[in-house]
Structure formats: structure tokens, C-alpha cells
Design a protein that fits this description.
Keywords: Chaperone, Hydrolase, Nucleotide-binding. This protein is α/β, with parallel strands linked by helices and 339 residues long. It has two domains: 230 residues, P-loop containing nucleotide triphosphate hydrolases (Rossmann fold), CATH 3.40.50; 95 residues, 2-Layer Sandwich (Hypothetical Protein Yjia, Chain: A,domain 2). Strands 3-2-4-1-5-6-7 form a seven-stranded parallel sheet, sandwiched between helices. A five-stranded antiparallel sheet has the order 8-12-9-10-11, covered by helices on one side. Strand 9 and strand 10 form a beta hairpin. The structure holds guanosine-5'-triphosphate.
Length: 339
């Protein structure tokens, strides 16, 4: 049996991985490929998973929630991949959390149970052009995180410099120069909304019925070798996230709130928040909206999500109890004003 290729998508929180995943899923049919998806989210609530299922109800999807894939037991990853393989996909797309080191999943794919079943095709790292240069100073005190973000660049087969619509050409040039210090070999594509020729990722893949045994990677073998070497050399692997926490806040569906209320809360906590997302019920008509807060920008989109509203907040060194207290206080005030 031929091995199923795996494409790993890495990149910091909010850089545009899910946007790329959506494009890959949309385009897979044009390449005559049946995809499967393994999603890893930091929180218990799986916002992106729901968006995917909404867009593609029959999607072969497995989820590893509430933790980084690097910390999930290898058996969990292995079980999820085996579950996906039952429906005989042509390619498995793995979206890592923003704080995962892609080497960890490469390691998991080399578990004995998976070696005969899957092979790494490419590691793609998506970078947020508007914010990527600031990470070193923002996270200066978190060496593990800085290390992880650097490894995301260093081990990528393909680097997507996303969100260039938000920066000047001059800034783009200087970012490219900075990225090249960590990875001068792999293809680096400036994009907006991860729009690039997906032939680069899917073109070499074949539907399984008529697969040839061909090599399709940029530096896959190198990555495997490099990783196996470092795994042998190092007995104390660096954890992929440390000071980053995620909190999920359930929201009563009867509560009447507007977008401004949420935005004010996010702006007030903005210096501590890296990312926030959720499903909210807005206004007296309880309109359901998906909210995405990334790189200090907030986007709202209508959604068909009908479950209980909630907000997921991901932050660095968050004072969780202060944040929860503040949220409760605001909710009480909101309730009083809407009585
Ligand atoms: N302006 C702009 N916004 C973008 C671009 N790509 C993605 N976005 C927006 O940025 C936000 C985050 O994008 P996602 O694709 O969810 O990012 P992600 O990397 O999956 O985020 P996590 O799941 O938190 O790791 C969403 O609101 C996107 O619509 C881009 O090129 N330009």
C-alpha cells in the first residue's frame, strides 16, 4: 500500500493557516484529490473546526483540542491519523496550533505505527507580514516561544509571507531579508489571503489509485534526517509553548450584547491577548456572528453556528482570574443596562 502524503501547516496564531486550509480544501477537487484534515486547537472550543464543517459537511476531519500537538500523547496523534485513513484520503492536511514546533509533528509521523502509512510531503509555514517582525521583541522574555517561532521558519519547505495587503513594499523587502537569515533555501512567497498557486503543494500529488512512487519534497528528507539526529542528540526536548494560555468563556444565549461590547473588551485586554475568536449572538435579533481577532484586527462574519455562544481568548502571561472577573463585571453592567 502506498503511503498517504501529509502536508503540515504551521505559523503563529492568526497568521492565516486556516485561510490556507480553506483554499486547499476548495482546490483539492480540481486536482482530483480527496483530502482529510487533522486540526489542532489550543482551546477546548473548536472554532475553526466548526467553520470547516460548515463549509464542507462531509469533510474527513479529526480534531485534537485543548492542547498543543507537541504535548498530545503520540498515541493520540497516531489514533487520529489512523481514523482519517479509514476513509482512504489522498492527502492529509494537518493544521498545527500557532505555538507548535512543526518538528514535533514530524517526530510523531515517524512513530512505528505510522511509518508504513504516511509520509511527510511538505511543511508550509504561514507568516503574518504585519506582525512577524515584532515577535522577537514582544516575546523576548519567552525564549522557548522565540525558539519555536524561529523553528517554524527554519524547517519550512515553503514560506508564505501572508497579509502583505497590510504592509508597504518597503516593509515587505525588509521582512524578506530578515526571514532569509533563518531560511535562505526554501521558496518564500508574499501573498494576501494565502492566494498562491496551489500546484506548489498539490500538483505533485496523485489520487491513490494511480500513484507512482515519486519523491515530491523540497527538503523533506533533510528535515527528517535533521530531526532524527537532533532527537537522538537531545534528551530534553524544548516544549513548544510555555506562557501561552487559552481561556474559553461561555456566554448565555439570552444575553443581549453588541459588537462594540466585545471589541471594547478585546481592546482593553489587547496588550495581553495574542488571539481571540468565538461565536457571538449579537443584538436584539440574536444574530449569530463569528468573530476573529488577530494581529489586533477584528473581523466579523455571519455564521450558521447555532450552539451556545462563546469566546476563546489566547494570551501571553494572562492573569486569568483578573480577566474572568473583568468579564463578569462587564456582563453584570451589560445586564443592568439592558433590563
Ligand atoms: N488583511 C488580511 N487578513 C487576513 C489575511 N489572511 C487571513 N486574514 C484574516 O486573519 C484572521 C486570522 O486568519 P486565520 O486563517 O484564522 O489564521 P490562523 O493562522 O488559522 O489562526 P489560528 O487558528 O489562531 O492559529 C482572519 O480574520 C482572516 O480573515 C490576509 O492576507 N490579509
Amino acid at each position: 500500500m502506498s503511503k498517504v502524503p501529509v502536508i503540515v501547516m504551521s505559523g503563529f496564531l492568526g497568521s492565516g493557516k486556516t485561510t490556507l486550509l480553506f483554499r486547499l480544501l476548495q482546490e483539492a477537487a480540481h486536482f482530483n484529490l480527496l483530502p482529510a484534515v487533522l486540526m489542532n486547537e489550543l482551546g477546548k472550543q473548536d472554532v475553526d473546526g466548526h467553520l470547516l464543517q460548515e463549509a464542507s459537511p462531509n469533510l474527513n476531519l479529526a480534531k485534537l483540542l485543548d492542547g498543543c500537538i507537541c504535548c498530545s500523547k503520540k498515541s493520540d496523534i497516531s489514533d487520529s491519523i489512523k481514523q482519517l485513513l479509514l476513509r482512504k484520503p489522498d492527502v492529509i492536511l494537518i493544521e498545527l496550533t500557532g505555538v507548535a514546533n512543526p518538528e514535533e509533528i514530524v517526530d510523531a509521523l515517524t512513530e512505528p505505527a505510522l511509518i508504513p502509512l504516511v509520509k511527510l510531503h511538505k511543511v508550509v509555514t504561514v507568516l503574518d507580514a504585519e506582525n512577524v517582525r515584532d515577535y522577537n521583541s514582544i516575546f523576548a522574555t519567552d525564549r522557548e516561544l522565540v525558539h519555536t517561532l524561529r523553528r517554524q521558519i527554519e524547517v519550512a519547505d515553503l514560506l508564505i509571507l501572508n497579509k502583505i495587503d497590510l504592509i508597504t513594499d518597503k516593509k515587505q523587502k525588509s521582512i524578506v531579508k530578515a526571514i532569509r537569515k533563518y531560511n535562505e533555501r526554501s521558496l518564500l512567497l508574499p501573498t494576501a489571503h494565502s492566494k498562491f498557486d496551489l500546484n506548489l503543494l498539490l500538483g505533485a500529488l496523485q489520487p491513490r489509485q494511480d500513484q507512482h512512487n515519486q519523491s515530491t519534497t523540497f527538503n523533506r528528507n533533510l528535515l527528517f534526517q535533521k530531526h532524527l539526529k537532533s532527537a537522538k542528540e537531545s534528551t530534553t526536548p524544548v516544549a513548544s509553548y510555555s506562557r501561552i494560555q487559552s481561556i474559553s468563556i461561555p456566554i448565555e444565549s439570552e444575553l443581549i450584547m453588541n459588537q462594540r461590547f466585545i471589541e471594547r473588551f478585546l481592546i482593553d485586554w489587547g496588550s495581553k491577548l495574542i488571539r481571540a475568536k468565538g461565536y457571538l449572538s449579537i443584538g436584539v435579533k440574536y444574530e449569530r456572528l463569528n468573530m476573529q481577532f488577530a494581529g489586533k484586527r477584528i473581523n466579523w462574519q455571519p455564521t450558521s453556528f447555532q450552539g451556545n455562544p462563546y469566546l476563546v481568548l489566547i494570551g501571553l502571561d494572562l492573569d486569568v482570574s483578573a480577566l474572568e472577573e473583568d468579564w463578569k463585571r462587564r456582563i453584570i453592567e451589560l445586564d443592568v443596562h439592558t433590563l
